[in-house]
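Q: Structure tokens for this one, please.
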Amino acid sequence: EMSASLVGSEMCIRDRYDDCNPYTSSPFTDIGIDAVMSYYYNAACWALDEGITTETTFKPFNNVTREQTATFLYRYAQDNDTLGSAEYKNVNLNAYHDGNSISHFAVDAMKWANYNSMITGTEQGYANPQGSTQRIHATKILYGFGKVCNIGNFS
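A: Here is the predicted structure, written as tokens:
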């Protein structure tokens, strides 16, 4: 069962992983024992275990880029068989002025996010993959993610 809450200006989505975290010490190089009781520790461990993040340097206070956000959600949808149509593979990201600056790890995720109207680029024709995911972007991305993965009510 998952629950969502607003912590400061951050949306936290947590499941019952809080009760079954298998780690006896932090698996991250930058989250020490003092942070183990923090609000994000169990969520970070869950993301690592699920392959949503693959980095053991978590950088908990860094901004998340648009391509990282797309990748987190893409990996989650992929692992839960909720990617939707495979037509996303035909998206041409080079149609954006900065399409060639999308990191290798994020290409499929950005195609998927673009195809499903989560990340559609700027009016000036940029995908802005290394730009921060601001609240306004996160709302649009999560709305599209909910529609694709059939999470929520989209009638």
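A few notes: Residues 66-79 form the longest helix (14 residues). The two ends are 23 Å apart (CA to CA).
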